[in-house]
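User: Okay, second chain of the day. Same drill as before: sequence in, structure tokens out.
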Amino acid sequence: MSDLKTNAVSRRKVLAMAAVTPALGLTGNTLVAAESAGMASNAVKHTMALGDMEVSTLLVGSRVVEGPQNIFGMNVSKEAFSAASEANFIPTDKARFYFTPTVVRTGDDIVLFDAGLSAGGTTAALAQAGIQPDEVTVVVITHMHGDHIGGLSNEDGTATFKNARYVTGQAEFDAWAKQDNERFENKVRPLAEKMSFIGDEESVVSGITSMAAFGHTPGHMVYRLESGGQQLLVAADTANHFVWSLAYPDWEVKFDMDKAAAAATRKNVFGMLAAEKIPFIGYHMPFPGVGFVANRDAGGFHFVPMSYQLSL
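Assistant: Same drill. Structure tokens below.
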């Protein structure tokens, strides 16, 4: 159900951004949205139907990172990493990261999952979906890494989504509250009075249910969407890469705070998705970040990008 006209406009904006990139002195390691320059020209949305829900993934930025085995597959040999990469037609010397919040229209609510890297980038992407920040009624924070909470407030410190209530895992909030983390103190703690703290298998709104998926962070949560007999999982950072993390769940990932628990969570969550044939949204999967998983003969999982299954 992607709006072809909107996507065409977005492509023109991307091309226009490319034209000015050299003048801005940007490199491959800079967000495509050029948020540091106050721009968000790459804001793109992809919209799907899930029963009576309207689900949109929002690309708020991307960047290229060199030396990906410094992040993924830290516990395997260079040869194993290279072989897996070659089999999947991806380079071993660099990788592109995607940052993709999700917004859901359901009943009278507009539910945003994660706030992205910055307020400017996320509100620009929301605008592509026809949503203003003041219209968001619920903000769900899957976990509290900086690229998921950066957009909770504007540069002047005011809340980006001033009419929203906030939902996050109790275990996640408690873990970060004990740390001396500047981003948490600036972005999350000021909103604590407006937050609801939940655990496993609790309702956010009708049709949206939490699931504990600890490991990436101490209280990392995923969310099951259900409507009209259809299901979709907002999987957040359960896997950070479609090959080096999802296909090889035992490969260690630098960003996983508890690497053994994160590996177990990947096996449990993606094993469930494969068995039940439920699609998922991954925050760092290649945009639009939506796909299925299938079991691989050699173990682990195979990412099957979604095409039109939720658009018929």
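The first helix runs from residue 4 to 24.

User: Thanks, on to the next one.
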